[in-house]
Design a protein that fits this description.
about 90 residues; single chain
């Protein structure tokens, strides 16, 4: 192998190892907040699909609606903050 192929292979292996480390941190509860968020998310999806017997399409559209709502609220808050603080990027002492 020539040098560029070796560098690409090393980057792929390092990225794969970093992904495995992050997954291991979630599985081993080292990143507790992310682990709890994953469990709550999967439990919510299970509850909607199995217990309440929602159709899969309904759950997908609820997620899409929530994402759109979060983007909308974020845009409103950011525009309010920009109007309050102004659009100047100057740093004052």
């Amino acid at each position: 192998m020539d040098q560029p192929q070796v560098e690409v292979l090393c980057r792929i292996l390092l990225t794969r190892d970093l992904v495995y480390v992050e997954v291991a941190y979630i599985i081993l509860w080292r990143n507790k907040s992310l682990s709890v968020a994953n469990i709550l998310g999967f439990m919510t999806i299970w509850f909607l699909l199995e217990v309440l017997e929602y159709p899969y399409v309904s759950v997908v559209f609820y997620v899409v609606i929530l994402c759109i709502l979060m983007i909308f609220i974020t845009m409103i808050v950011m525009s309010a903050l920009l109007s309050f603080y102004g659009t100047s990027t100057e740093v004052t002492n």
